[in-house]
Amino acid sequence: MMATATEVGRREFLRLSASAGAALVVSFYSPAKGRAVQSQPTQNGLFTPNTWVCITPDNQVTVLVEKPEMGQGQRTTEAMLLAEELDIDFSTIRIEQAPTIPDIYKSLSTGRSGGTRAGWESVRKAGAQARAMFVIAAAQQWNVDKQECRTQNGAVIHAPTGRRLTYGELVEAASKLPEISAGAVSLKEPKDFRFIGKPLPRVDTPSKTDGSAGFGIDVRVPDMLYAVIARCPHFGGKLENFDATAAKKISGVRAVFPVPPLGFLDICGYGGRNLNTAGGVAVIADSTWAAIQARKALKLQWDKGPGGNETTDSLRSVLERQGTAAPTFIALDRGDAGKGLDKAAKKIEATYELPFTAHATMEPMNTTVHVRDREIEIWSPTQWANVIQDEIATLSGLPKNKVIVHMTLSGGSFGRRAQWDYAAEAWQVARQVKKPVQLLWTREDDIQHDFYREYSYHRLLGGLDTQGKIVAWSHRVVSTPIRPVFDSPESLKDPQHSAEVGGADSLPYFCPNIRLDYAPAPSAVPRAWWRSVESSFTAFAVECFVDELAHAAARDPYEFRMDLLHEDSKAPSGDGPDTRKFRGVLQLAAEKAGWGKRLPAGWGRGIACHWSFGSYVAHVAEVSTEKDSAVRVRRVVTAVDCGTAVNPDGVRAMAEGAINFALTPVLGGEITIKDGAVEQSNFHDYQVLRLNQAPDIEVHIMPSTDPPSGMGEPGVPPLAPAVANAIFAATGVRVRRLPVDSRLLQESLYQLGGPPRSGEQICFRG
Amino acid sequence: MAGMNLLVNSKKYEIDGAPETPLLWVLRDTIGLTGTKFGCGMGLCGACTVHLDGDAARSCQTPVGSVGAKKITTIEGLSTDRSHPVQKAWIAEQVPQCGYCQSGQIMQAVAFLTKNPHPTRDEIDQAMSGNICRCGTYQRIRRAIQQAATDAA
């Protein structure tokens, strides 16, 4: 089916709503309140915007989507869920981004791969409520029992007589009915689904093939100006002096002024706030180009600040030291890992290291702000409009309802746009200019002022008994923690809040003696959520180490995992992963990949799996090693269990995207530090995956009628270990630091004199 | 600050400004054609790709003064109704995720297919590797180009 729902701009929507006369407007079931919000009959034919679904007499159904669209297909998923229960043609739905109205739209954000999960109940209930009201309205009009009525594609039908009224014809009557509670409507059985589970085309595809999709950077407001900021390159440093004489002479330049840093409280020590801006000098001009040129002409002097001596090497020595220091918290302590290791027949130890890596969204950070007398209007490609509204209200002293935030399309996010630093900067600039201003970050700004994935270091010890079973497991995680950036340093001592070891704490493999603990490494470098967050590095350590244990036990790494995934390995609390589902995805991926079948000489196959955001993902990666370019990832076969795959093509797209995204820090993307500043600046020295490096990908989805779980992130964590394990299978070399250092790999291959000899493990760290 | 005449999507524009200004910013900030995107400003990512007389060009590295009489085509000028075979293939294969890089990807693919209507996979990989997609739609881009090549045959 090639149905295509359409997107609609807010202005057009209001016009349509106004011209269409009466409208039935139904709000979503709110689980927090436990009841539906009152349905809102329209007044004077005008849309009342404290609602989510609007149906007008011309049969137009519009859904207001709270979640941002940043590539994950949110708008399409919500349209599908609504169409399913409202019983309308998916292709007729219009989609609009919900506005920031405090106390009404409370979830103008997404994260934790939660978009589909959030809408699974609430959006369907809203559709079912509206449908039930149309049925009652029709039954009353015909003076028949509502049990004799059914719906079909946007109309109510009286089965015995064949009479039919469209939803549009019933809008006026339905809007006068009393509210039907969400609890009073039942949802469809999966066997009756029309749209859910079908691969439907995305609603935003057409606008993304003709240049009409509007991103934050495309916002154009009459009389607007353009701005860039020269930021302090040293994290925690500050502006000492600047000379703008030459900059001001550049044609089109309107103003040059310093902007102070916001936040950045004691970040070197760990402390901080959910806001860090570097501060520096802003340049305002008639065009983006003039602003960029003028910035180049600035003479700037920086105070490096307390983090000015930090380098990647200095940080690394701290991380290594913390690998054996006293832990700040113990996340898991089952049995006695120490005794278990002492008694083990074979003891294996390994350390793994993953450096800082950047988000590098294709659309650089930007925000347009117009500060008026008693009102601020903001257009931002953000993952979290609520927080921009809240915080700009705090900074400006205006009430929240005087801070209007338009959430535009985002050109990628991957966690980056959950920060609101760039919106705060845009406000800082715009408040000094009495005109709308678009603040744009260049790619250099983006690479050098990201909130990077944490630098992490892992020390693992494993014990095997004489039968090759794991009898002890000890994992020390060291990282530049993200939690105290948003919380108090004290949070690092609380094992109940073990976010820093996320993913490592849901070890699915059976082992009687497990210990998982944590020690932090202070750094001046800002860091935050990067697609799949802690799982993106803990899964690398865990799944590589399991592979090393399998090898030490002389077992096939797939079979070794399958044997360890039995009921006994379930977390005692019962809220951990389901080992059966783990086995399911491992088996599916292994079967589809042809696990155990011969590969060409110099190729290797590796397997890894992980559970995150409720979903199970297993990857089998195939790599080839070549004399000139070292490692090439040829093929990735993936199996996912994400519960109900609402839009299977969307699930595939997310898995493909996650694999490609995860390959960047494996093959090249590394952020290094010198003088407390980032050494890389653009795509020549921060190398992201390109098309000629992209492997063939096959995605297999486990059939399921369970509620949907996340898919934006879960494909990321098992990819790096699957590739590293494949490199070992191909070369006998253990990759224990990312990105893969092809030079060292080549040397090792050279020393080996060719392909690997079985039983040999060469380990190196970069 | 001499006036320059530009022919963009078959429309004439008279532009004032410095001739060294990159075409990208003239298209986006002066003419208001925002379909062409800024990605890196160094010709490293391909998001700003347009056509000059049918050849793919990185508009962030093209001084507006160097364009002269060459016909400029942007994503907005590729077709009026998304009917170009490459746009159709992009929709059929459901390529875009965030969509930000796709104008550049499509313009690059169109110019490439014009010169090489029946490319091999290696040729596609080579031609498209200057265009970065962070969402990771590469496999679908490959398929869409193969699809467009087949449809045109």
Low-confidence stretches of chain A: 8-21, 27-50, 264-273, 752-760
C-alpha end-to-end distance of chain A: 50 Å
Note the overall shape of chain B.
globular
Q: Largest beta sheet of chain B: what is the strand line-up?
A: 2-1-5-3-4
Helix content of chain B: 25-40%
User: What summary fits the major beta sheet of chain B?
Assistant: 5 strands, mixed
> Which architecture of the largest domain in chain B does the CATH hierarchy give at level 2?
Roll
Count of individual helical segments of chain A: 18
Shape of chain A: globular
Task: Give the CATH class of the largest domain in chain B.
Answer: Alpha Beta
What is the CA-based Rg of chain B, rounded?
Answer: 15 Å
Write out the CATH superfamily name of the largest domain in chain A.
Aldehyde oxidase/xanthine dehydrogenase, molybdopterin binding domain
CATH architecture classification of the largest domain in chain A:
2-Layer Sandwich
Helix and strand content put the structural class of chain B at alpha+beta
Total beta strands of chain A: 33
The CATH class of the largest domain in chain A turns out to be Alpha Beta
Low-confidence stretches of chain B: none
Assembly state of the chains shown: heterodimer
Greatest interface by residues involved:
A-B, 60 and 60 residues
Question: What fraction, in percent, of the residue positions of chain A are helical?
Answer: 25-40%
How would you characterize this protein structure?
- The complex is a heterodimer of chains A (766) and B (153).
- Chain A has 766 residues and is of the alpha+beta class.
- Chain A folds into three domains: 6-205, Aldehyde oxidase/xanthine dehydrogenase, molybdopterin binding domain (Aldehyde Oxidoreductase, domain 4, 2-Layer Sandwich), CATH 3.30.365; 220-307 and 365-440, Aldehyde Oxidoreductase, domain 4; 313-356 and 452-764, 2-Layer Sandwich (Aldehyde Oxidoreductase, domain 4), CATH 3.30.365.10.
- Chain A has 18 helices and 33 strands.
- Chain A has a seven-stranded mixed beta sheet with strand order 14-15-12-22-19-20-21. A six-stranded mixed beta sheet of chain A has the order 1-8-7-6-2-5, sandwiched between helices. A five-stranded mixed beta sheet of chain A has the order 17-25-24-23-18, sandwiched between helices.
- In chain A, strand 7, helix 2 and strand 8 form a beta-alpha-beta unit.
- In chain A, helix 2 (74-86) runs parallel beside helix 3 (115-142) and helix 13 runs parallel beside helix 17 (719-731).
- With 153 residues, chain B is an alpha+beta fold.
- Chain B contains five helices and five strands; from the N terminus they run E-E-H-E-E-E-H-H-H-H.
- In chain B, strands 2-1-5-3-4 form a five-stranded mixed beta sheet, with helices on both faces.
- The longest helix of chain B is centred in the last third of the chain and has 15 residues, at 138-152.
- The mean pLDDT of chain B is 96.
- Chains A and B meet through helix 6 and helix 16 of A and helix 1, helix 2, helix 3, helix 4 and helix 5 of B.
